[in-house]
Amino acid sequence: MEAGQGDRVDKKDDKKKKPKYENLGFNTAEALDILQRDIRRIIDEYEKECKKNKLTTWPYEGNILFILVIFNSILVISDNRFRHLEILSRVKHLAQQIEVAKSICYWKLEHYPHLYSPLSPCITLQYTYRDGQMVNLPWALLVAGDIIVIRPGQQAPGYCTPFEDSDGPVLHAHEIYSPPLPTGDVFSSPQPRVPLRNQRYKLQETPYLTSLRLALDQALDRPVTCFNRERHLVVICCIEQLVYPILLILILIFNLLRYLYLYEYVGIGHWTELFLLQPVTVTLPLLPIAFPIWWIVLNCFGMARFKALFKLYQSSKKNQFLDPFEEGTDHSQPDVVYNWTELSRYFCAIMFGKEHMMTRSANILHVLGSVTALCCVDKKGILSWPNPTAEKVFFLHNANAAANTSSNANPKETVSHTSRYYYFSSLFSVILIKKLFSLIYSMTSINKSTEPNHPNDNSAKQEQTNKSSTQHQNDGTHAVAEVLDLTHDRALPFKLQFDDQAWRQHLNSLKPLGLAILLNTCNMETQEHYARFCCHVTCEAFHNENLVPVTNRRCLCELAKQIGFKDQAKEIFHLEQQLSTFRHVPETARVRDMKFARSLSISTKLKFPFPHMVAVVVREKNGGGLQLLTQGTADIILDSCIEFWDGHDLCPLTESEKKKVQDFYNRMSLTSYCTAFAYRPLTRSVSSHLSNVYLELPTESKHLFTPYRSPTPLPWDFRNVLDPRIKGLLGQFHSTDSLLCSEAKEDEVSSVEGCFELQCNQIFIGMVTMQYQAQTDMVTLIEQLERACIRFVHFSKENELRSRVFSEKMGLESGWNCHISLLSERDREAEQQQQQATEDSVLIQSIDLASGQDNWRSLSCLTDSTEQSAPVNFDLSNRAKLPRGIDKIRPHIELIDNVPLLVSLFTDCTTAVTREMLHIMQDYGEVVCVLGSAANAENMPIFMQADAAIAVEPLYPQVCQRVAVFTETRAEEGPSPIELSRALNSVACSLSIKREDPIAVYHLIMEARHYMKCLWNCVQFWLCCVLTLALAQALSAFLLLPPLFTVGHVLWLGCVIVPVLAVSLVGTPTDPSIMQRATGKNQCLVTWEVAAFVLWCYGFKFLPTIVTVLGWQCLALFALCATYAKPELPCYYVYPNVSASDVAWGGWASKPDTLLVVQHIALVIVVLHFVTISVGFVHREYSLWRKLPFNNWIWFTVAVVVLNVRYQKRARLEFTTKLGMNSPF
């Protein structure tokens, strides 16, 4: 494994020793060529399969108007074809991108993620040889034939075979590479363990093809959108399949009776008019003549607007852009000004199937317009910052130190308090610590404000601090536990600051911690060794399900900077060796775990990090002194420590102090990442071969540290060495050389026993807890979604405790009835059986929460907020009778209640259970949009299950804030590996974004809601108008009147007037208050209550139109009948000449102009009514006097044009109609 990357920190002496890989693996062009050929092969196979199973479905259309039918058919079939081939066309576009990339892309090492980037469940990377060097390659770019490096404990990305070791195991996809470990041997002393080696494998398949096949096979399996379901219900089921046939049958039956029995009393037309023309005229408005055209056009236009707004928000990263939707913005002016040239380009591309955005098979406009649940399946780098930051700093200090410093007690009394503890090695350690930090602080130019206070000032501040009962807890011993809280700057990933304004009074206690961070935690020279050790520990943990190999060493440079250290401080030292130690946990911990789990009333097993410690041996470049700085889990650190540093002196670490430390560590380890730090000076160097082995301690190893402890302490005063103002007898006669009597005289430690001895007698420095912090924009988004009645659901891969703490940071409800674990009972039973069958020890360290309750309280006030309080300061149990396990969700919903559909947090999630839970939510009417990582190899099935998915390129975790993860490529260099991987992984997603770009999901939902509300208003108005036309004509026929309209009139109304009035309603300006209204579920059921509401809501609006136009027809024909009737024959009803069998419609056929005038005026009345009624559809939620409709200038223009056209037609009618004195005008 290479030890560095680009210009990152590496050992200069090892550069010449790096292996050469010029002929190993593919170069970039070859790999991309293989990836392109594999994708092309999948495309060809899919197209051949489609040709075999090709079915052409012609929509049900009327056969009256041939041209419109043909045009509708072509448009609908084309739209359906584009929907079927949408993902396939996106894959072809990706193949073209790869074709271009392989000719221009030459990726350097810095273009890939850092080799030692911390592992993240949201990002899948693989060590691969490319262009003669090992890189951290995104998994989607792996191809068959790649030479990869599998680390111990890592899952294989696909089927692969050993590259060099023919006897090595063959690995299949998702199989874990776990080399054999020495098991079964019982030992009682520290044992050396050879680190597990990385193994080279040759990949035999392209892993991405599995996800690609899944996307292609399930491209059409997504749920039908709510709006398409409602459109199908209303247009197809209710109108075309119910109203249309009923009305057609009634008009035919009534005309048959009229033709057979009523021809002597009322006028009738020719049989072709009664049985062909009039039924067609009556039912023609109910046929989808123009509706499919406008539905497709309006959907494409809405997607074009949506994409334009999405691009506008993406560009706002570079160009400052005023958010038009924020509160306080003046909405009297147009908010978003669209570029109509760009909008028309988007529209044409979407209309003709050339747009690479998902517009049909996963219509993001429809989904966001009706979304009820926004689900996030990845946390790190999306919901939270990718790197955890320090939240609390724990250390011990002597409660009597300040009092002794400021008291007037005589030296004998002082000696009596401390002489029984301190000995020569302690003095030597104190001297070195004082000298060391004085040297570092003098070289790093620390601010005077951060210097240690004068003893007298410090005593005064200490006395003032002790007045606060919430800051110090003293249980009667001399040691007090201090906890300093830190607040994360939410605008920056690493920025921190202490909450307590007087934190500098503890600066002496914090200095060793800052030095340990710089030399061990954030030392780039230690990353390779630490990465190997983590892999080894991971394999050790595989032997028991309860072991958790948590890699809790993350960047703490900012904390060291806050303490006062600069980066140059580490230049004073030179790294000599690195020592790693671990141990298993005894079996007796299981009993304590069961007791503790019962006390918390939680179902999941409590898991703590694998006990380990990692130490570095550094040498001062000037003085040559050796220092050992250790960090790890508190349990093993405490066993190796005999003293603690209180900021002034070394104090004995008694069982009472250890209990304080252990209690704090156990509490914090439940929900955060806690690391303990220790230190000791060395007088002997360490052999280099000890860095190449790991030290395993027995499960019961506490007694092993006892023989190496220092001898019985001598009764003398040590303060004279630390403070030159205090003179004592021993201070005058003892030199530092005489303090080394307990140390051996060997020049170099080379044995395992000597290595273990070096790590004994350490000085406890303190602990740091780290936690992932929620990003501000996501917290704001959740608050906005809650106001919009959209439930934010987090599918957490972590257990209940960790998930609930973070959910509180996100602002989600995490109380007793707000979370469900999806880990099924059968999985838990399998774990328990495996636990009973195995002989390995269990890493379940239980704690008693009642002990030490007041010994570690934070300096900040304890509240219910997880940012300022202990993670167990709330009720951890889930006392509600909620189901546990995915297999219990459906029975609970069917038999008990729907609470599982109302919670915002699901824990213990895997890809399979997450997908099943999404399916359950969809079955019960939820419209689900999923946010997920575009770098996660496991997310494709989840993306395909959701109604729509948004792929987010997460923020990548950094090994240190001073080291960039990767470098972006320039424009002429083509896409970077990260960009190309994101394009491949988001092939089934409606949107693909970068996390660092502004996430405008809320405003995109607002745009989608507004447009789809306007579109549905358009549909409702359209359907009401055509139903009014059909019912008015049917009632006219039932009243035995002549035809109300001609076919031309109906076509004019149904294909011109009604569509343009309805479509103009889409131009209504965006109303932000739409986000305060809840959307319904994706369940369309017609009940009697719904039918009654629709008739009441819309019937009273359009009933006057029917009454008015029928009244006009009756009155006009009745008034004109006497004029045209013969003197010897009276009028029969409204017919002037019923007896004349050769004249249709009772004599009106001989006066066509008169009947035409009546029909035209009826047409004018209908148009006037439709225009008037459309006023109420512009702003449906507001009264007319509260919000005028004229701000929709499109509707206003259309209404004026329509009325003007009707006026011109009537004027022409008056000019050409010869009625003279008999004119009804």
TrEMBL record:
GO terms for molecular function: nucleotide binding. Pfam families: Cation_ATPase (PF13246). Residues 1-13 have a biased composition (Basic and acidic residues). The keyword ATP-binding does not apply. Signal peptide: none annotated. The keyword rRNA processing does not apply. Residues 1-20, 448-475 are annotated as: Disordered. The chain crosses the membrane at residues 64-82, 242-262, 282-304, 1019-1041, 1050-1068, 1157-1178, 1190-1207. InterPro entries: ATPase_P-typ_cyto_dom_N, ATPase_P-typ_TM_dom_sf, TMEM94. SUPFAM superfamilies: Calcium ATPase, transmembrane domain M (SSF81665), Metal cation-transporting ATPase, ATP-binding domain N (SSF81660). Keywords: Membrane, Transmembrane, Transmembrane helix. This is Cation-transporting P-type ATPase C-terminal domain-containing protein. It comes from Trichogramma brassicae.
